[in-house]
Amino acid sequence: MSSKTMKAIVTNGDGTYNMKDVDVPTPGPGEILVKVVAASQNPTDWKTALLHQQPGNILGCDFAGVVADIGSDVDPALAMTPGKRVAGAVHGGVSPNGAFAEYVTVPADMAIAIPETLSFEDASQLGIACYTTCQCLYQAQHLPTPLEPAEAPLDVLVWSGTSSTGQYAVQFAKLAGLRVLSTASPKNFELVKALGADEVFDYADSKTPRRIAAATGGALKHAVDCISEGMTPNQVSMSLSKEGGTISTLLPYESRKKGVQTVFVLAYTFFGKDIQFPFVFPANPEHRKNASMYCKLIEEVVSRFGLKPNPARIFPHGLASIPDGFEYMRSGKVSAEKITYRIADTPGLAT
Ligand SMILES: NC(=O)c1ccc[n+]([C@@H]2O[C@H](COP(=O)([O-])OP(=O)(O)OC[C@H]3O[C@@H](n4cnc5c(N)ncnc54)[C@H](OP(=O)(O)O)[C@@H]3O)[C@@H](O)[C@H]2O)c1
After folding, report:
1. What is the pLDDT of residue 58?
2. What is the pLDDT of residues 108-129, one digit of tens each?
3. Same domain, 180 and 235
4. What's the CATH number where 88 sits?
5. Which run of H or E residues covers position 38?
6. Residues 32-51: pLDDT tens digits?
7. Is 285 in the pocket of ligand 1 (CB under 6 A)?
8. Cα(310)–Cα(221) distance, integer angstroms
9. Ligand 1 centroid to residue 46 C-alpha, Å
10. Residue 274 resides in a domain
11. Is 133 a pocket residue for ligand 1 (Cβ < 6 Å)?
């Protein structure tokens, strides 16, 4: 495989990137090579392209495709056979290996098996959003999972039920038997309710934190802040009980409210390695073990309950559309949707 070349979106090291022909990667021990069918975009992709000025890295984190090759020492229990449909995430743009390419490598125990009923386009958004959801709800707060639901009533606030992670966090929390409160702009209230939110509030309304506190009898202890910047650190803190509580955050911050503990989660810690970008995060072997566990959990939740994907916005020219996708997202146009690319739509592919 390593002598073959592929098209990929590669960083130049000065904040720019280009589509280039590069070698197809070789799967290392415990890894598989995936032929990417569809890739989804996350805010981190355009931010990494601009700010992490290291040349020669392939951008893109989220992918879905089929197993093309299997490295040494892959656990046979994972049943990784060529052609198997899988999805997942890598630290694209920061490591040389990225999802905006014809092929990507991933540890076999972090490849989420996808059912025939889920399209590659929809499956390509599972990686970052679902791993982050699991880190927020289970790693950071040990909340009940859909496989071991809550036995007693428990409220959780998912701030931003329309964000990519928020749409999955609402579904995982509801399937676990929690009462889910969430926020969105009014045009998206119905979408968030259809995902399972019991109550949805307008994030731009200054009375929302007070209304959430009232709706939870002033006793809310658990929140996930899927935005974690601007007003939300204060809004989420004010929604929690007087005694405080815990907020899982997607960007790092401390709450100014007494008794509120924040736990910053970073999806890329799933590899259990030291991270320098986008934030310094020391290696935590527990996070690597969790990633393997969450992979199985996500697989089971997807196949048993059939999660609703973020509505996909497919850009027409595959990898060649990535500059347009970055601009669409960077200029704040994304609303309750997932920017998605089909690799086969890329002009000039060999096959
Ligand atoms: N730490 C991690 O591992 C990690 C993982 C994933 C994402 N992130 C970060 O989390 C942030 C969100 O990423 P994403 O991909 O989930 O976002 P996204 O899907 O691009 O978010 C877009 C949505 O955010 C909503 N929104 C905007 N401002 C809001 C506010 N003040 N309150 C509530 N909702 C608001 C909009 O809702 P309406 O359309 O209803 O207006 C829009 O639908 C980014 O900064 C990203 O880098 C971090």
Report:
1. 98
2. 999 999 999 999 999 999 999 9
3. yes
4. 3.90.180.10
5. strand 31-40
6. 999 999 999 999 999 999 99
7. no
8. 27
9. 14
10. no
11. no
